[in-house]
Specification:
By secondary structure, the chain is an alpha/beta fold. The chain has 10 helices and 12 strands. The protein has a 5-stranded parallel beta sheet, sandwiched between helices. A 4-stranded antiparallel beta sheet has the order 6-7-8-9, with helices on one face. The site of calcium ion (CA) has 4 residues, from loops.
């Protein structure tokens, strides 16, 4: 896989390039955001530092997202929750905080890469893809197309990140079923399970914020999550008991 490494720190770039080359990837390393924009089209995957000399990495990320949908992981020292949320909202598929263990970053790259396989492609699909093929799930005014990997709210498309969609799709695959945090982390984060627990909350917050339907993902306190029944929530004279 051809990777674009946007990193202005020489030692960090060297370490990453060596580790990636060992995994069989080719790497183009660039220092500046302007170079990154120039070379984005030829890349299959992007690793993005946020502290760049000419432009903030988040602004670069937003620019990149207007021109392409490449799988992308932010690799940065910025560790505040606000930074993580901003990075994911701007379209990062994952967010890794420096210093990190190389094995963990490699595992996350593999996971994002696996998840980014388009339906119908020959790439191995995620666990939810096989059981959800061709299915649409509706709750209230939210429609989830599991095969087409798209979501609309009141007919208007909502752009979720790959991983946000994966979380939503897992819940929507069996509406009514409650999924434990462990199961969601295991099935969606896979190898990168460790240290992802807070990331799950961030993704759920992202789904709620972007759809504007806070009830779309229902928290089962102390256990996990469930697809919310928006139709039931939207009716003031709800006849269901215990809803
Ligand atoms: Ca930097």
């Amino acid at each position: 896989m051809h990777m674009l490494l946007v990193e202005d720190d020489d030692r960090m770039a060297q370490a990453l390039a060596t580790a990636l080359a060992r995994r069989g990837h080719t790497v183009r390393r660039v220092v500046r955001a302007t170079e990154a924009l120039r070379h984005a089209r030829e890349a299959e995957f992007v690793l993005l530092d946020l502290g760049l000399p000419d432009l903030d990495g988040l602004d670069l990320l937003r620019k990149l997202r207007t021109v392409c949908d490449l799988p992308l992981i932010v690799v940065t020292a910025r560790s505040e929750e606000r930074d993580i949320v901003q990075g994911l909202r701007a379209g990062a598929d994952d967010y890794v905080i420096k210093p990190f263990r190389m094995a963990e970053l490699i595992a996350r790259i593999d996971t994002v890469r696996r998840r980014s396989g388009r339906p119908g492609s020959s790439a191995p699909s995620g666990p939810s893809a096989s059981e959800s093929e061709g299915r649409r799930v509706r709750t209230g005014d939210v429609a989830i197309d599991l095969a087409g990997r798209s979501v609309t709210v009141d007919g208007v498309p909502v752009r979720l990140t790959r991983r946000e969609f994966d979380v939503l799709a897992l819940l929507a695959a069996q509406p009514g079923d409650v999924r434990s945090r462990e199961e969601i982390l295991d099935r969606i984060w896979g190898d990168a399970f460790l240290g992802s627990s807070r990331s799950l909350d961030v993704h759920v917050a992202g789904i709620r914020a972007k759809t504007g339907r806070a009830g779309l993902v229902r928290t089962i306190r102390g256990y996990g999550y469930q697809l919310g029944d928006l139709a039931a929530q939207g009716r003031p004279t709800d006849e269901r008991s215990g809803a």
